[in-house]
Amino acid sequence: QVHLVESGGGLVQAGGSLGLSCSASGRTLSSYAMGWFRQAPGKEREFVAAISRGSGSTYYADSAKGRFTISRDNAKNTVYLQMNSLKPDDTAVYYCAADLNRGQLGLRPQELGKYDVWGQGTQVTVSS
């Protein structure tokens, strides 16, 4: 069983940056595609970014393109989300997730149902 733990959230002013980490225990993540999602109060959970097992492919939500970067270090069993130029609309709980059935992103990596294991989330608050 794989267990995911996010860290790195916090309070930042608009225009600032934050780096999130997702560390795994129980199983190596190197075989799996990984994703980041977020959920703002009163809203549905939404896709942010995804990365293939070998980092050869990445995919971003339009809201993240040009500002966020997903990466991974399989040796450290960790996936990252670097967020720059943050906006108040980025305020949400951020979750990482593992797709245990796929190493490549395939079609529609933004679908929540593709991901089998989720972390508990880390709060990101962007003040105006």
What do these coordinates show?
- The protein is mainly beta and about 130 residues long.
- Helices cover about 0% and strands about 50% of the residues.
- The protein contains no helices and eleven strands.
- The strands form two sheets. Strands 2, 4, 5, 6, 9, 10 and 11 form a seven-stranded mixed β-sheet that branches.
- β5 and β6 form a beta hairpin.
- The mean pLDDT is about 95.
Which percent band covers the strand fraction?
Answer: over 45%
Tell me, rounded to a whole number, the average pLDDT: 96
Label the overall shape.
globular
Helical content class: under 10%
Order of helices and strands: EEEEEEEEEEE
Which features would summarize this protein structure in a list?
single chain, 128 residues, mainly beta, seven-stranded mixed beta sheet, 0% helix
Summarize the helices and strands and which ones pair or pack.
Elements (H helix, E strand, L loop, with lengths): L2 E5 L2 E4 L4 E8 L7 E7 L6 E6 L6 E3 L7 E6 L4 E6 L8 E8 L17 E2 L3 E6 L1
Parallel strand pairs: 2-11
Antiparallel strand pairs: 1-3, 3-8, 4-5, 4-9, 5-6, 7-8, 9-10, 9-11
What's this model, at a glance?
The chain is an all-beta fold and 128 residues long. The protein is built from no helices and eleven strands. The strands form two sheets. Strands 2, 4, 5, 6, 9, 10 and 11 form a seven-stranded mixed β-sheet that branches. It has a four-stranded antiparallel β-sheet with strand order 1-3-8-7, with no helix packed on it.
